[in-house]
Design brief:
eight-stranded parallel β-barrel, 17 strands, 2 domains, four-stranded antiparallel beta sheet, TIM Barrel, Immunoglobulin-like, alpha/beta
Length: 485
């Protein structure tokens, strides 16, 4: 058998190529995986307002509101989704909004501006909140059959995400229910009888939704974070405790609604304390404010009464300056206590000639970021996103640790080696990416023994270079190359 004189040089070239590609991919994935702070806006009303004649302006010139929010620092757009909002058929021109077609349009607009998307499944045909969690009419016949209802929920979540994914419109975060303080998918009778919560039923339904998200991740080789959402900082800790105690732990994010209007006397400092305790008690979970807002005037632009009008002590009177200051101070408190983001609810729900189910105009025109002529108030609330916040950065340098964790492909699986000096908080999540950033495998690892003692099976991968990452329960990320010759 004759030796190949070029074999050694080819191997040398491949070594350099492997190193170069791995370094590039590690850099890219670290940028993707790093949890930067989310400065978010719920823009669910924008398409409807534009159809109703709103023209959003900056400096007197009409501007795409998505581009405007991007320019002012927004990096996350939240969008609500109703199952079948047929009540829209009798309003205005009969167009439906916040259904799948409208949400796809909105996600496309957000993605075009490079912003992430939080998709809020209301799991109802209309508004879902602590007082209303009525099952969609399409599922009313099976509302008392937990197995069939869970199956309907799974299929709905899966089909919705698959439809969006086929259009290249996967959301980055999926919210299972909206302000689910009384559970989800209740019959009208149970909803109307007052607060009640069957935790066995509730957790089974949440798990069905989570299973659909997990299945989408594997089928489409993508990553979607899941979230639960509770209104009122005073209540959220009890609810999270009950979720976990009853076996639902797979969520990535704890979302909270905080409005001074409805949650006073809870102060900024108390909100910060709640965020801090949640971070301590549930390592690996991110905590965000999914909804908040503050008014800029007591005046009203239309026949729809303003529903946000109370003033927080020290931020009176309502003004654009105080709106901005309120948001900045709340945000710094959340940052200081380890929170991952804040979403302002409906800053673009301006007044138009169209009607809601209750009145003509907007009930929120005094809490938007726009004046009554749809001109953005540049010195007002929208400026909270570009404020120079004090971020607390870890002093621990993980770069050496990431180089010390190694990944080796052999016999159809990945072996992970973690040196004794590298401490991880379990459970950990292993992910494997291709060079183009596609997720190839995602596996939860419960312990160091499981990490070191088992080969993680991967199938149908071609020879080449891949990236392996480990994210531990404290959201530390480590990465390294995987070479399959």
């Amino acid at each position: 058998m004759h030796s190949d004189p070029n074999k050694s040089s080819r191997k040398t070239v491949m070594k350099y190529a492997v190193g170069l590609w791995a370094l590039l991919l590690i850099t890219l994935v670290r940028q993707v995986e790093a949890q930067s702070f989310y400065f978010g806006a719920d823009l669910s009303y924008v398409n409807e307002m534009e159809d109703c004649g709103a023209v959003y302006k900056a400096g007197g010139e009409a501007k795409d509101p998505y581009a405007m929010f991007k320019d002012y620092g927004c990096n996350l757009v939240r969008l609500r989704l109703w199952h079948t909002p047929s009540w829209y058929d009798a309003l205005n021109d009969g167009n439906r909004y916040s259904d799948l077609a409208d949400v796809a349009n909105s996600i496309s607009r957000a993605k075009a501006q490079g912003m992430d998307v939080l998709l809020d499944f209301h799991l109802s045909d209309t508004w879902a909140d602590p007082g209303h969690q009525v099952v969609p009419a399409a599922w009313a016949a099976v509302v008392n059959n937990q197995t069939l209802l869970a199956d309907s929920l799974y299929n709905y979540i899966y089909a919705t995400l698959a439809s969006l994914g086929d259009q290249g419109l996967f959301p980055d975060i999926v919210q299972i229910g909206n302000e689910t303080n009384r559970g989800i998918l209740l019959s009208q009778a149970v909803n109307d009888q007052g607060w009640t919560l069957d935790w066995n039923r509730n957790v089974a339904l949440f798990q069905a939704a989570q299973n659909a998200i997990d299945a989408i991740e594997l089928t489409y080789s993508t990553t979607i974070k899941s979230a639960i959402h509770i209104a009122d900082p005073e209540d959220v800790e009890w609810y999270v405790e009950q979720f976990v105690a009853n076996g639902f732990t797979a969520f990535d994010i704890i979302g909270i609604s905080y409005y001074w209007q409805w949650h006073q006397p809870i102060t900024f400092a108390q909100v910060g304390d709640v965020v801090s305790r949640l971070k301590q008690n549930y390592p690996g979970k991110n905590v965000m404010l999914f909804e908040t807002a503050y008014g800029w005037t007591t005046q009203n632009a239309d026949a729809a009464n303003n529903i946000l009008f109370n003033t927080y002590p020290g931020y009176s009177p309502l003004s654009s300056d105080n709106q901005k200051k309120w948001m900045i101070d709340l945000t710094q408190e959340v940052i200081d206590n380890g929170g991952s983001g804040i979403v302002y609810w409906e800053p673009a729900w301006v007044s138009t000639g169209c009607s809601t189910q209750w009145a003509q105009g907007s009930s929120w025109d005094n809490a938007t970021f726009f004046d009554f002529n749809d001109e953005v108030q540049e010195e007002g609330g929208i400026g909270w996103m570009t404020h120079p916040y004090d971020f607390i950065l870890s002093t621990e340098d993980d770069s050496d640790l990431s180089e010390s964790i190694s990944f080796q492909y052999a016999d159809g699986g990945i072996m992970i080696t973690v040196p004794d000096n590298v401490r991880l908080t379990y459970p950990c999540r292993f992910r494997m990416y291709s060079l183009d950033g596609k997720l190839m495998q995602s596996v939860s690892i419960a312990s160091r023994e499981e990490m070191m003692g088992n080969r993680i099976a991967v199938s149908s991968i071609l020879p080449g270079i891949y990236l392996g990452t480990i994210e531990d329960a404290n959201s530390k990320n480590f990465s390294g190359k995987i070479v399959h010759y």
